[in-house]
Amino acid sequence: MSTRASGRTVGGLRTLSLQAPAVGLLLMWMLIPLAMTLWFSFQRYNLLMPSVTGFAGVDNYYYLLTDPSLWTAMGNTLLLVGWVLVATVVGGTLLAVLLQQEFFGRGVARLFVIAPFFIMPTVSALVWKNMMMHPVNGIFAWIASLFGLPAIDWFASLPLTSVIIIVTWQWLPFAVLILLTAIQSLDDDQVEAARMDGAGPLAIFFYITLPHLKRAISVVVMIEMIFLLTIFAEIFVTTSGGPGLATTNLAYLIYIRALLDFDVGGASAGGVIAIILANIVAFFLVRTVAKNLEN
Amino acid sequence: MAVNASRARRSVLNRKLVLTLVAWTIALMMFFPIFWMFLTSFKTEAEAISTPPSLFFTPSIDGYIEIQARADYFKYALNSVVISLGATLLALLIAIPSAYSMAFLPTKRTQTTLLWMLSTKMLPSVGVLLPVYLIFRDLGLLDSRTGLIIIYMLMNLPIVVWMLYTFFKDIPKDILEAGRMDGASTLQEIFYLLLPLTLPGIASTGLLCVILSWNEAFWSLNLTTSNAAPLTAYIASFSSPEGLFWAKLSAASTLAVAPILIFGWMTQKQMVRGLTFGAVK
C-alpha cells in the first residue's frame, strides 16, 4: 500500500516536472503580453510623440469605439470568416464526397486538390493578385475576353470578395483533407442497407453521410476559425487593407495603428477588443470540441 | 443474362468516366494557380505577361538565374530553414515530456490543461504584437533568428503537444510499464520505448510544425527587416510595384513552396489524425 501511495506522489511530482516547461512557457506567452497590452491600452503612448504620456483612462477605448473604422474592420472580419467558413465547409463536403468515389487517377487528383493548403500565404496572395486577377494580363481577364466580356478589375471593384476567394482557395483543401478522411470511415454496409431500402443518393447524403461528418465538420470549423480570425498576410500583400478600408480586418486595423501610426495606446485598445472577440468565439468552440472529444 | 451483365458493367464504366471527368476538371482548377506559377517561372518576362497567355514556349531558367544573381535568395532560404527547423526541434523537445505525462500519467487536470493550451492559440497575434515588439526591441531580438524561433515555437507548442498526445495515447500502457518494471527511468522510457514506437507520429508532428513555421507571415513581416527575414518576407517584397516581375516572382515562389508542398503531400494521411487530435480517423 505504502509503495503505491508513494508511487502516486512521485507520479504527481513527475507530472508536474514533465509539464512545467510547456505550461510555464505558454503561461508566460499568454500573461506577459496580455498584461502589457491591457496596461498600454489605458496609457497615452505614441512612439511619435514621446512627450505625451500618462494615464489615459478609457480615452483610447472611447476613440476606438467611436471611430467608424473599427466597426468597418469588425464587419470585414466577420464577413471574411463567415464566407470562407461557409464556402469551405459546403465545398469541402461536396468535394470530399466526389473524391471518395472511384475514378481514374483518384490518388493524383486528391493530391492536386489538397496542394493549395501547403502554399505560403504570401505566395498565393501574389500569384492570385498578379497572375490570376490582374485586370489586363491575368488569366481571368483572358477568360472573360474569350467570351467577349469586359475584364473585372478584381481588387478595385470587388476587393473583399477577391480576398475571400484567395483565402477560400487556401482553406478549401484543408476541409477536403479532413472530411475525406472522415468519409472513408463511413460504414459501407450501412450505405448499402439504406440503398436496399430504396434511399436515393440525396437521402443517403443527408441522412447518413452528413450526420457522420458532424464531428469532422466541427473540427474544421474550429481550426479554420483560429486561423481565419487573424488573416493578415493575404491582405498585407494584396490590398494593404484598401481601397479605403474595404479589406481592413481587425488584425490589419491594429497593425495600421501600431506599426504605421505608432499609436501604442490606441493599438493596444484594439488588441484588447480583438482578444475579447476571440475569447467569445473560443468559449463556444472549445466547449463544442471538448464535448466532441469526450464522446 | 449475359447481355444484362455487360450492360450493367458498361453503365458502371460510364459512371466512372463521368466521375473522372468531373473530378479531374475540379482538381485541375484547384491546382491551376500553382501549375501556372510553375510554368511562368520558366518564361521570359515578356512571355510571362503576354496576352493571350502562352502555354507553349521555349523554357528558360533565366528567372531562376536572376533570382540567384540577386544573391540574397539563399540568405532568406537559409533563414527559413534555420528558423523553422529550430522552432520545430525546440517545440518537440519541450512538448514530448509534457505530452508523455498527459498520455501516461493523466490526472483530473489533464483535459483542462490541454484545452487551455489550445485556447492560447486563440489569442490573436495582433492583440499582443506591440508588447512582443517592445520586449524584442529591448532584448535586441528584433530582426534576429533567435527571436523568430522563440515566437514560432510558442505559436506551435499547443498544436505540437496536442498532436503528440494524440499519438502517444494510442500506445498501450503495458509496453511502457514493462520497461519500468525492468528498471527504466522516465527518460530511458521515453528514449528507448516511446520515441521508437511513435516515430511516425513524431515525424508528422514535426513536419506540420515545419510547414506552419515555414509559411507563417504575420510575425516574420513585423519582427524582421533584413537580417533574419525568411522567405515569406522575401516573397512579400515582390508586392511592391518595382518588384513585379512575374517570371522572377514565380521562380522565387516555386523555390519557396516546393519543399513544403512535397513534405505536405508525403505526410497528408498522418497529418489529418494529428490535426484533428484523433477526433477524425
Automatic annotation (TrEMBL), chain B:
GO terms for biological process: transmembrane transport. One of its GO terms (cellular component) is plasma membrane. The chain crosses the membrane at residues 17-39, 81-102, 114-136, 148-168, 189-214, 245-266. It is found in: Cell membrane. Residues 77-267 form the ABC transmembrane type-1 domain. The keyword Transmembrane applies. It is a multi-pass membrane protein. Keywords: Cell membrane, Membrane, Transmembrane, Transmembrane helix, Transport. Belongs to the binding-protein-dependent transport system permease family. MalFG subfamily. This is Carbohydrate ABC transporter permease. It comes from Cobetia crustatorum.
